[in-house]
C-alpha cells in the first residue's frame, strides 16, 4: 500500500512539473514560425544568414538554414523560458537564442556556441535575428544595381600565402544576385549566396560549422577582398577571370613514400576493439579508407556521399573504414561525437579513432603516406592490399562538373577493382 502511494505521489508530482513547464512555456514570449534574417558580429563585420523555423507547436520543431539552393535541417529544443536551442547535427556546436521585445517587434538574440570542451566557449559568436525578412544583404527597394558581372570562373590568389593555398571561384550572377563557391585543394566553401552592388560584392554561408563572409571590390575586371572564416581567421585575396585556372591535381598531392605499396595502421573502433587492414574482414576485399573529422564540413559532405554508396554496394566485395581525427584528444570524446555521426549518416562501415585533428600527427599514424594534406582524404585499396588511388579534399555537389567528374572516376575505379579476382579465394584465412 505504501509503495503504491509513493508511486501515485511520484506520478502526480511528475504531471504537476510537466504542467508547470507547459504553462511557463505558454506564458513566455515565443518566436514566430516562418523566415528569419540573422546577423553575426564577426571581427567588426556583419555576416548575414537566413533561416526558417517550422513546427514549433509540434513534436518535431525544426530550424532550416538557407544558402541559395542548399537547405540544412536541425532539430529545435524549446526551453521553458521560451528560448530555443538547435544542435548543429554532427558539429560540436549549437545555436541558442531567446525572444526579446524591441521597437520593431520581437526578435531573437543569441549565440552560436562552440561546444568543444577544451575551447570552453572561446569561439562563441553573438547574433540577432528578425522575423519576416527574407533578404540577405540588401533590403527590398534599396538595390542600386551592379556595374559589372562576376559570372564565370575566377583565379583567386591569396595575398598572404600563410593563409592557405590559392583558390578557384565559380560564380553565377543573375541581375545583382550572386551565388557560387570558392574551391581550394582541401575542399570548398559550400554554396555561397550574396549580391553585387555598384563596384562591390558580398557573399556569405552558414550551414552548421563556422560561418563564412566574403566581401570585395571590382575594378577593371579584377577583384580584391577578404574571406572571413567566422570564428577562425581572415584571408585577403585578389582575383582575375580565367577559364583555364585549375587547382593542383587532388590525385597527386598525397601519395605513398618510395618503395611502399601498402598502408598500415591499427586504431580502436567505437567499442575500443583494434581495427587493422590486416584483419580477416578486409582480406581479398576492395577497401575505402576515409580520413575525416566531425568538425570538417567537407568531411561530412564526403560521408554524405560515401555512406549511401556503401549501403548500395557492400555486397559486391567492398569494405570501408573511417579514420577520425577529432578536436579533443580523448577516446570518450571520439565515442560521443562519432556515435552521433554514425547514427546521423547511417554509417555501416567501421569507424576508428586516429587521434587529435592534426595533419602532422595523421601523417605519422597513417604510416606510408608522404603527407596528409587535407581532411578529408580518400584512399582506395585493391584486393591485394595495395593502394591504387589517393584523393585529397572533396568537391561537393555545388561545384557542378568537378563533383560529377569525381563521382564518375570514383565509380569507374571501384568497378574496375571489384571486377578483379580475389587473390585469396579458396585459401585458408590468415
UniProtKB/TrEMBL annotation:
Keywords recorded for this protein, A-Z: Signal
Signal peptide coordinates: 1-26
Q: Which CDD domains match?
A: TlpA_like_family
Q: Which InterPro entries match?
A: AhpC/TSA (IPR000866), Thioredoxin-like_sf (IPR036249), Thioredoxin_domain (IPR013766), Thioredoxin_ResA/DsbE_sf (IPR050553)
GO-annotated molecular function: antioxidant activity; oxidoreductase activity
Keyword check for Signal: yes
Which SUPFAM superfamilies has this protein been placed in?
Thioredoxin-like (SSF52833)
Q: Which PROSITE patterns match?
A: THIOREDOXIN_2
Describe the location of the Thioredoxin domain by residue ranges: 256-412
Q: Which PANTHER family match?
A: PROTEIN DIPZ, THIOL:DISULFIDE INTERCHANGE PROTEIN DSBE
Name under which the protein is recorded: Alkyl hydroperoxide reductase/ Thiol specific antioxidant/ Mal allergen
